[in-house]
Write a structure and sequence with these properties.
five-stranded mixed β-sheet; three-stranded antiparallel β-sheet; 15 helices; EC 1.14.14.154; heme
Length: about 425
């Protein structure tokens, strides 16, 4: 077969290259590289059962060498993954930019990633090339996992109820101060405050400024601060923005949230305090439902360092093993009215409640985000303040599409109409 391809390719190349020596050398080389690449894929993936009876996940073929499915995935990743799930089941592999990605869809398959040890499914191998240029050396995924865990423990010293109680007032004051520039009505977008994050890092630094007896240097402190801001500030602001659009679209839900503010906090809206937040159950469900439909991170990834088994398939070392919270959160066989914004779904029996990894906006297991509780405190405080100040509507019915070009999937052109409430 390869000989036939070579002969056919040679005939085509002879017509195309003319008398150019460079063309005669370069084009056959390109042809041979393409044949070699396709042959590698054929031998690796088309036979799912090898001689030693190792069964690999179903492989989604592509006619484009090296790039594979990068273009179609980049344009519409969620639809791509949902189609693959329907056709191939909960575990499947495909190539993008020369790398093999294996996705685990659904709660049962996702358990492999969330229950894994770092030495088996490794985070640094995937994320270090993304985070180190931003955070700098010596922090996060640039260090061995035990050191990274020590760094996260430092942050945990600032993520406690005592600090949360002081943050509520601080966040409320900054939100009120920011919205003074909006006026009584108009069309605008929303931003978030950074001061609370800086205070957390400052508190963590003061309470524990050494790792394994070695003092942190200024670069490490700066890198940890940048990491915290990126991990917490951008994700929370994106969730807050999406929730605003959902509430503007579903005005009855927005009205319920406003009524809840009066019922829980008082008709005259005195300053918020931490103990009130737990009683804002409608607002809590709105956050939860927003995180279901628009989790900030579309894909969680690990590099397989050792052979892994899941759903009857064997995943070899070198595969990037992935779970998509977005896809898991809208599987039609797990979620009733899977694409509808319905905060009240959590009041009733829900098939997803019996599945451990059906809802994973903050990760799960040993990989769960340490900032989950702070995120809820922050978003509840900001939206409590905003609901007291304004009512929100879509601008001519415009509901944003998702920006898939960024790591955190923000709304495209996030504009919203607001009008100050008359209290």
């Amino acid at each position: 077969m390869l000989v036939s391809l070579w002969q056919a390719g040679g005939a085509l190349l002879e017509e195309a290259v003319g008398g150019s020596l460079a063309s005669k050398v370069l084009l056959p080389c390109a042809f041979l590289l393409t044949i070699a690449y396709l042959s590698k894929l054929a031998f690796k993936h088309l036979n799912t059962v090898e001689a030693d009876n190792v069964k690999y996940p179903p492989y989604i073929p592509s006619v484009i060498p090296f790039l594979g499915h990068a273009i179609s995935f980049g344009k519409s990743p969620i639809e791509f993954l949902e189609r693959a799930y329907e056709k191939y089941g909960p575990v499947f592999s495909f190539t993008m930019v020369g790398k093999t990605f294996t996705y685990l869809v659904g709660s049962d398959a996702a358990a492999l990633l969330f229950n894994s040890k770092n030495e088996d499914l490794n985070a640094e191998d995937v994320y270090s090339r993304l985070t180190t240029p931003v955070f700098g050396k010596g922090v996060a995924y640039d260090v061995p996992n035990p050191i990274f865990l020590e760094q996260k423990k430092m942050f945990k010293t600032g993520l406690n109820i005592a600090h949360f109680k002081t943050h509520v007032r601080m966040i409320e004051e900054e939100t009120v101060d920011y919205f003074k520039r909006w006026g009584d009505s108009g069309v605008g977008s929303k931003k978030r405050s950074w001061k609370s994050f800086i205070k957390i890092v400052y508190g963590a630094h003061n309470s524990q400024s050494e790792l394994h007896g070695t003092p942190l240097n200024d670069d490490e402190i700066a890198g940890m601060l940048i990491g915290l801001l990126l991990a917490g500030q951008h994700t929370s602001s994106t969730t807050s923005a999406w929730m605003g659009f959902f509430m503007a679209k579903h005005k009855s839900v927005q009205d319920q949230c406003f009524a809840e503010q009066k019922a829980v906090c008082g008709e005259d809206f005195p300053p918020l305090h931490y103990d009130q937040l737990k009683d804002l159950q409608v607002l809590d469900r709105c956050i939860k439902e927003t995180l279901r439909l628009r989790p900030p991170i579309m894909t969680m990834m690990r590099m397989a360092r050792t052979p892994q088994s899941v759903a009857g398939y064997n995943i070899p070392p070198g595969h990037q093993v992935c779970v998509s919270p977005t896809v898991n959160h809208r599987l039609h066989d797990t979620w009733v009215q899977n694409t509808e914004f319905n905060p009240d779904r959590y009041l009733h029996e829900n098939p997803a409640a019996g599945e451990k990894f059906a809802y994973v906006p903050f990760g799960a297991g040993r990989h769960r985000c340490i900032g989950e509780n702070f995120a809820y405190v922050q978003i509840k405080t900001i939206w409590s303040t905003m609901l007291r100040l304004y009512e929100f509507d879509l601008v001519d019915g415009y509901f944003p599409t998702i920006n898939y070009t960024t790591m955190i999937h923000t709304p495209n052109n996030p504009i919203i109409r607001y009008k100050r409430r008359k209290l």
